[in-house]
């Protein structure tokens, strides 16, 4: 594997390289590596992804979806250049101020930023394409939803008081997860989703959102991205504000004729989807914190668990699995 400076030889001359500095960018829960490239006149982001080399030409998801989003006026960083053989991409530097950071400072026009984020979300959900082409050939189908549920079972179970879900409990949860998955298989309502639309994947540049980490975009219920934004593991929003933003999202969907759901059905599927999404996130946090040693993710486990009781109380379909999870993890000192 080359050093970051060696990768830059594919984009800059030797004279330019002598003036360039490189600093690592926080990787988050990604297997890709990012570096900020700093010259006297400008900055860029260098992405190193060994998986890029294995994709057929013109089928690397990041580049395909960046082009799609950009062509549909979705604000994403521009691609400056790429080298498939080395697995590197040079992209526009849109700064490092996340929506999460802006909210933590308490000076932001929160409602305005979230409306802009929802406007962009709906712009993504409005994009149409051919079923056989990326990203329209991927969806939150039964296999994908159950994979995410099972990811939680695989990675959370090792951190229960008994160092694993007993087989009887694990089997019961798996059955409940299968039933919940069936509730979410509504392809007639599917739209394009970013798939990870939370406050750490939304940069704020000159007061406006710019969307990153979009390479896993796929078809699914419009609630999936709305849940990611409004039931975010990294930022806890006031319940009244969440309700206001849910109404705003639903109106946008309705006005653009992207849904035939009633508002009650929208809220019902929002809760079911939120439960699934939060369970998936818990699996990720357990894996990152305890298997991969990234302890900074441990802090997001408790806030994510804290969302579950409200869904369980509102939706009887979630009661059994929710109670098993909460009762089992309650004594694990998380």
Please tell me about this protein's structure.
This protein is an alpha+beta fold and 334 residues long. It folds into two domains: 4-92, Phosphorylase Kinase, domain 1 (2-Layer Sandwich), CATH 3.30.200; 99-329, Aminoglycoside phosphotransferase (APH), C-terminal lobe (Aminoglycoside 3'-phosphotransferase, Chain: A, domain 2, Alpha-Beta Complex), CATH 3.90.1200.10. 46% of the residues lie in helices and 12% in strands. The chain has 13 helices and nine strands. It has helices at residues 4-7, 14-17, 61-71, 99-105, 110-125, 142-156, 167-184, 223-230, 239-255, 263-291, 301-305, 308-314, 319-329, and strands at residues 21-25, 33-38, 43-48, 79-83, 88-92, 191-193, 202-205, 208-211, 218-220. The strands form three sheets. A five-stranded antiparallel sheet has the order 1-2-3-5-4. Strands 6-9 form a two-stranded antiparallel sheet. It has a two-stranded antiparallel sheet with strand order 7-8. A hairpin with a 2-residue loop joins strand 7 (202-205) and strand 8. Helix 6 (142-156) runs antiparallel to helix 7 and helix 7 packs across helix 13 (319-329). The longest helix has 29 residues, at 263-291.
């Amino acid at each position: 594997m080359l050093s970051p400076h060696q990768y830059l030889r594919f984009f800059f001359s030797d004279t330019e390289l002598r003036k360039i500095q490189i600093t690592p960018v926080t990787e988050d829960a990604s297997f890709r590596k990012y570096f900020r490239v700093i010259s006297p006149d400008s900055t860029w982001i260098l992405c190193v992804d060994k998986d890029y080399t294995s994709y057929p030409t013109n089928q690397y998801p990041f580049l395909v979806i960046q082009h799609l989003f950009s062509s549909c006026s979705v604000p994403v960083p521009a691609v400056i250049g790429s080298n498939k053989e080395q697995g590197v991409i040079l992209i526009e530097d849109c700064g490092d101020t996340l929506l999460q950071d802006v909210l933590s400072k308490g000076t932001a026009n929160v409602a305005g930023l979230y409306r802009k984020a929802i406007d962009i979300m709906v712009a993504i959900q409005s994009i149409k394409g051919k079923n056989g082409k990326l990203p329209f050939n991927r969806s939150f189908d039964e296999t994908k939803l159950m994979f995410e549920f099972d990811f939680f079972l695989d990675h959370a179970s090792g951190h229960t008081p008994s160092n694993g879900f007993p087989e009887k409990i694990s089997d019961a949860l798996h059955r409940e997860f299968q039933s919940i998955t069936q509730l979410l298989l509504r392809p007639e309502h599917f739209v394009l989703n970013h798939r990870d639309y939370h406050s750490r994947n939304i940069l704020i540049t000159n007061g406006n959102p710019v969307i990153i980490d979009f390479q896993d975009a796929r078809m699914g219920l419009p609630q999936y991205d709305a849940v990611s934004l409004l039931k975010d593991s990294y930022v806890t929003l006031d319940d009244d504000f969440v309700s206001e933003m849910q109404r705003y999202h639903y109106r946008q969907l309705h006005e653009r004729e992207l849904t035939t759901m009633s508002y009650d059905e929208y809220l019902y599927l929002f809760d079911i989807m939120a439960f699934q999404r939060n369970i998936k996130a818990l699996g990720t946090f357990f894996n990152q914190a305890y298997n991969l040693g990234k302890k900074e993710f441990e802090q997001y486990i408790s806030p994510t668990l804290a969302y579950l009781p409200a869904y369980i109380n509102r939706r009887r379909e979630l009661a059994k699995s929710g109670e098993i999870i909460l009762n089992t993890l309650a004594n694990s000192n998380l």
